[in-house]
Design a protein that fits this description.
heterodimer, A: 353 residues, ABC transporter involved in vitamin B12 uptake, BtuC, B: Rossmann fold, Double Stranded RNA Binding Domain, six-stranded mixed beta sheet
Amino acid sequence: MDIEVRNSTAYWRVILVISIVLAILLIGLNLALGSVYIPLDEVVSTFIKGRSSNIVWENILIRTRLPQTITAASAGMGLGIAGLMMQTLFRNPLAGPSVLGISSGASLGVAIVVMASGQLFGVSLSSIGILGDATIIAASLAGALAVLLLILSLSKRIGGTLGVLILGVMVGYMASSIVGILKYYSKEADVHSYVIWGLGSFSRLALTKAYLFAGITIIFSFLSFLLAKQLNIISLGERYAANLGVKVGRARMLIILFSGILTAIVTAFCGPIVFIGLAVPHFVKLLIRTSNHIYLVAFTAVFGVVISLFCNLLARLPGLEVTLPINSVTAFIGAPVVISVIMRKRKATTDGE
Amino acid sequence: MESNHDSNPIVSLSNVSIGYGSSKRVASNLNATLSRGSLTCLLGANGTGKSTLIRTICALQPMLEGSIVLDGVEVSHLTAQQLSKRLSIVLTDRLDVANATVEELVSYGRSPYTGFLGRLSDHDKKMVDYSLKCCQIGHKRKELLANLSDGERQKAVIAKAMAQDTPLIVLDEPTAFLDLPTRVEIMQLLRELATSFNKAILMSTHDMELALQMSDKLWIMQKGGELQAGSPEDLQLSGAFEQLFHQTNVKLDIRTGLFKVSYNFNHTLPTVGHGFHFVLLRRAFARKGIKLDHSQPTEGIWLKIENLDRTRYLIYFDDTLISAHQQVDEAVTMVDYYLKSPSLKHLIDGSPKQKTT
């Protein structure tokens, strides 16, 4: 498609309208489709009139599908924006939310609770249920925030952005290696529950927790949106940014902080979700040709919702009794997007020469 | 060396030392000024600290000693925000902003003036249009940066600096990696911006010949860390250039303002002939370390340029014609071979002859 077209505001409005319609449609489908089909008019009446003709349907909607839909949508939005910020900060198309090692930190937190506690106290948290759920969220959050704090405190001493990137990757490796040791010495059941956690899921949260999760994600997504101007200028490189009056160190810290918190929250509530944060920004950049983060962040938020809901729908393939792990689906949707971006980029550079 | 219109400079450096901490001092005691409406080129060999000086003036790197006053205020006292309205930069860093159009890049130049979310006011938009136009890149405004040629990209970055609306623009080697016509074009653009918009423009460059012809002032960084400032003509007369190329193979012909490469000659080759062919031949042989001269050939190898219906280069040994060539390249290769071959005399008359010189 012509660049002029993809750069025009009229075209952007069309895309925005389509994406919002898609998001609403996907919310509807996520609520309606699953192992039990609930007609759309029943879905609508449940939420508008507060009741449905079928109490079982009402239960399924309120207890499973609504929290799952809210969780999926919020996770998609948060991860997309976190990934976009990392790609801009590091000026690297392969950067994503996990690049700072924050999700590895979360995994380490969970691994310690799930596997080490079984070893030390003889109690497998995996068998405790609801209490275990909250503990896992707390452990994951603690691990992720610990890594985030470590990165932030060290990043002041590291001069360049590239140094921060390497730091993040190294911290990630270290966390993974400790997880490896824990896995090696743990009971099979504990390892299994850790692996299950690591596959990610949008269906672990009850409605109240889903609301909480959505609330936090929306707040930090909005805060990230407010960084749009800084992101624009930072994308020119640190020295140009400094010359344009941006305090580069502070801007970088805020970007890492918000992106890190979004990643930490999503990982805590859903487990490490792969590829959404990497693929959604690329998908948006393919659709709209701009470097202006006011638009990029906004579109990434909407398409994060759309793509995440779409993946969630595929994971519960209608007509199938079983549910696929969400990460298998996101990888299958996300990887081709990234591959096509790389191919296009290569084509563009070879055409130019 | 100070002239009258320098009485109110936009930038003045006094006793400035630059470097990386006290252990790595690159140059010290630098004194110079920049004034509005003039294009100044910063020249100097690699490693003399041109880029360090540029970065120091741009406040991208701390100064070790001395003072740099920009628009009446000491640079170190300016906040980043204040500095961004006084000084704009064009760096050697390649600007690779994913998906950015020329217009977007130029509009980011307005960020010191825009609000929290960076929305452009009508005035900002006018400034962007204006900058695009005066940098002759308006026709590419919707083009992606990635699709521009190097020269066009450089114009876009200069337009960004124009949009920033600062009295001083500093450019680090803006003409590097460009072909000659584009280099001239960029220099002309900078000249135009300096005169028409009353800006002070400082650029570092290795393009001496262009700098001599097109800049109002030159700053020359010498090897010892000395900075000489003045008009190209004054500096030419003061011998600053001889000092710049001291102990190198380059000589500046101060009458023409052109540079000459000097060669190390190992041989002298008597040559009969003159004209344009001789000039070309002389250069070709010079690269091989063979100096052509017009002395009367006595003995040994000598060369004759024969201008009959075709030009031929005849190589003689004493009075024997050894070979004739139509290509300069061939003649050079053969002469080089003969001169290096110890048993040449064998080849020619079969009988060893005692060399008398």
